[in-house]
Amino acid sequence: MIPAAFDYKRASSAAEAISLVGQYGDEAKFLAGGHSLIPLMKLRLAQPAMLIDIGRIKDLSYIKDGGDFIAIGALTRHMDVEKSALVLKEVPLLAHAAGYVGDAQVRHRGTIGGSLAHADSASDLPATTLALGATYVVQGPKGERLMAAADFYKGFLESALQPDEMLTEIRVPKMNGAKWGFEKFNRRAQDWAIVGVAAWRSKDASGVALVNMGSTPILATSVSAALKSGASVADAAQLASNEAEPQDDLNASSEYRVHLAKVLVRRALEKASA
Amino acid sequence: MAGSILGNRVLRKEDPKFLTTGGVYVDDLRDEPLLVGAVHATFVRSTVAHANITSIDVSEALTMPGVVAIYTAQDLGLQPVEASFNPMAKRTLLASGKVRYVGEPLAIVLTELANQGEDAAERVIVDYDALEILIDVEQAMTSSTLIYEEVGSNVVFESTAIGMPDNTGDALFADCEVVVKGRFVNQRVAPCPLEVRGAAAAWDNGRLVQWLSTQHAQGARDAILKVNALEAGQVRVITPDVGGGFGAKIDAYPEDLLLGRIAKQVGKPVRWTETRSESMVALGHGRGQIQYITIGGTRTGKVTAYQLHALQDSGAWVDIGAILAPYMTRPMASGVYDIPVIEVRTTSVATNTTPMVAYRGAGRPEATAAIERAMDLFALKLGKDPAEVRRINLIPKFLEPFTTSIGQTYDVGDFEGALDKVLEASNYAQLRKDQAARRASGNTKQLGIGISVYVEITAGNSKGEFGKVEILPNGRAIVYTGTSPHGQGHVTAWSMLASDETGIAMDMIDVVWGDTDLVPTGGGTMGSRSLQQGGAAVHQASKELVEQARKHAARLLEANEDDVVFDKFTAAFHVAGTPAVAKTWADISSALATDGGLVQESNFVSNGATFPFGAHVSVVEVDTETGKVTLIRHVACDDAGRVINPLILDGQIHGGIGQGAAQALLEEVRYDTDGNPITSNFADYAFISAAELPSFEVIHMETPTPRNPLGAKGIGESGTIGSTPAVQSAVIDALTHLGVRHIDMPATPERVWSAIQSAN
Ligand SMILES: Cc1cc2nc3c(=O)[nH]c(=O)nc-3n(C[C@H](O)[C@H](O)[C@H](O)COP(=O)(O)OP(=O)(O)OC[C@H]3O[C@@H](n4cnc5c(N)ncnc54)[C@H](O)[C@@H]3O)c2cc1C
Q: What ipTM did this prediction achieve?
């Protein structure tokens, strides 16, 4: 419960943070809201020798209208995403999902960038942005690159980010009135999901992603394909776990997870079709 | 009572401090002169569940920054100590020879700064020779691997071995028309006080002063004296604010007991505070029974025989938790029911897990859970309403002692009265109609209604309790008590009791506890005993103080003692008829200032245990597609005898229901097959929060006990005892039409879902 010793530096801009991380190499880690990293450090599952605090980089906390998409700065807190009038209007599914992250204290500290960069398949926002077809803006020593959410998640707590790269912005396509459903199945209000589902549906398209159904967030492409070819919601939901490889853990067996995914996908899509 | 403060919702005097500047816990004692220059203790703990220790190498750890010293059992020459409840089980306070559970302390690292300890402790290298790991009680009972070789068995305590009769098997039920059997797991839970364990020790002129987060300073003092072979008077234990205990801080732990010795060894004061992860594995756990029950009776619903065999998980030591089954579960086995024949056997078994201690209810919740589940199964078999079957079997209202067939005598009881109250308040008949409608419509959210009626035992220990009231020359009163609040609100309740007799205003009364120099004798706070014993002692001392003061007043007034009266409203003594010439408490105390002061001590001995009782109705919604349970209503009627402060009473009931519902739905300490704890933080251990609970509906009922002058019984544990079976039963009740008969606690979504699947 007491972390191993580490050094600390505070960055005042993305460029400074990236140069600092370059300087310290593998030993360094960005510190945003600290709500994933610090618990791991306390359990000594992570022991970075250097923390580069990016939490106070002011110009990375914003929510802007980018035309076809909403642009959210990586350091925007979950609470700001949840309450933003712009997000509520244009990507209500994301605002809603952000409101289900942990409890109010967690949502005031945790950042959207930290949540995505941490790449925990049990977290709500990786799957939600995946369902929405978001694009992540990544900045590194050689400049900026854009990455589709679908290309970002590589494995358990593993993303496509290089150690010296920083997530700076999340671009979430506007939903243009598409209906949506979000199901988070957990035991206690502030817990991570045992299984979660973020889904939206418009006249001719849909997006369904699963929380905690494998080592990465899972895009349930079979469900969307079935819907596109005219399957009923109930039938499409039966395909919920086609792309998933759910694990056994303290809270659920993989068999139960598969069952939950089907029920929750159906429920989410029923809301998205109402 | 007209004109009395007792029975009123008096706001808690202690809360402004707790809600603003905060309590001062052991770890907050930064300005204590005796602790200047203290070093910090960190315990190296076993990382394996069962193994022989082949070596402990501290050489690398000794080179780590800030390390002052490292001690193992060998360094300290620790000798094995006998378990209080089985002298053949022996261990050293730091493990030597073998380790018996993950978390067992092995060595102490002393560092200059607190945060240096964990780094150094990580570098103490322990080599182990693995032994078979016994986590499951029934596996431990049959294994040839012994956790304590000298005991000759993993059964460390057996009710038959202490003269309690054995169960006679199925023969007992030969005459029954209907017989039902069950196996219930009353799972292991963690007490989780918000303040973890902590202590600090310093030597002061040859005397050991130890600050300790405890429920019982005087008991800890005696244990520390014994371990250190010191003479009476050589140890002072001081209890700062304590952030909860739930029974797990009754007895001093090896870590607490060693601190003084270590302080002597290094010649410096020593501080220790455990982390939450440590607390989850090294603070004692509670419950942990496997219960085999048989219940039998007539087709009309009369239960005629009941048998229970409780297998108690003792954990890796034979602590108090191991003996609660024979001494607390057994006598309460038939609960509120008049069952002609009862048999109970208990078998306590050592396992490679955290030692079991007393936890909120301590043996009685297990008794209630077993009989209440049994009643439900019996009613279900008969196809009768569970409330009706209970009613048929309840012991009728009694205001004279009633002895059950297992031999336990209850003081007073009106179980049917409590049942009627909760059935009415919950609108039980309507709930059943709503349930029927949902069943008929095939709704995926099914309604479940659970009932429990319970009686429990509190303050069985009759050794008495200490109370003292002192009046200072400025008229302030100081109440000394042998009980030890750690959240219960004694400062308020004890002030009310003293104020009620002396007329001294609440804000002129202070309460002192938990410092063994100021309060040398005391039984501490546990087992819901405080008000009825400690409060009664304060009440008695206050009464006697008034009598004593009246005599002094007569002298000061130069009047005949018989003519002097006490006016509670002005808090002054005067000659009857002439109130203008009066002597106040301050006057009398001042007059006695050079004459020993104005003090009254009292030892209150009750004439027996009391038996709080009540009934709970719980309503849940079960999602039959996912197995998720939502607790939507909880109605509780808990009769704790005469109520001194209904606000504090409600608080105890609310907390109790919350903790009880948590056992039914969420909490369980779990180990993997290698004996590694897998629920040792608050992300994995599903401690309940307000969001999972409805607003409780609390109904008051007061049947005073004749066993103390206050008429009060205990309320600290009732909520937990009544709620757990009601909530569990509600979950099962929602699914009986699908064929589900039993679901063990906690009713996790997957368990509930699986039960539905296998019933289908
Ligand atoms: C009690 C509790 C409950 C929670 N419940 C939930 C829940 O229900 N659902 C849920 O989704 N989450 C939950 N969380 C996690 C929470 O959402 C975290 O805030 C989030 O996962 C991480 O964000 P952060 O800003 O705190 O990141 P940090 O902890 O600071 O960082 C996490 C990781 O990401 C890296 N990182 C951070 N920002 C960047 C960046 N901009 N670019 C590159 N790398 C970066 C860090 O180096 C680190 O490796 C919970 C947390 C707690 C403590």
A: 0.95
